[in-house]
Amino acid sequence: MTVPWLRTAVxxxxxxxxxxxxxxxxxxxxxxxxxxLGLKDGRAGHPVERLVEHRDACAGVKIAPDEMRxxxxxxVGVTDYCQPDNAFRDGLAGGSYxxxxxxxxxxxxxxxxxxxxxxx
Length: 120
Prior knowledge:
The protein is an all-alpha fold. It has helices spanning 4-19, 34-43, 50-59, 67-81, 84-92, 103-119. The longest helix has 17 residues, at 103-119. The termini are far apart.
């Protein structure tokens, strides 16, 4: 049996947690260089769905991302990210892999992640 107030409290805590985890502070949305943000996200290996998180973060101030500029920057950033050294670095650091690169990168990342897990 679930206590009704408990369900409400959990839902409120979850919602508060989501609001606190925005990708861009709302007051920065109008000043954001969407190309640079896409470049940064691509270099960090974030999936393209990250743009949705940015859109949600800026919705409260009625700023829409410049999707074309973001995707242009992200394309360059992903090219930078998909280098062999990054597969090993991110895997050893325990980072997740969003499937952005080729199969060799994926195998190297998985192998490095396995080494990191064994080390723990």
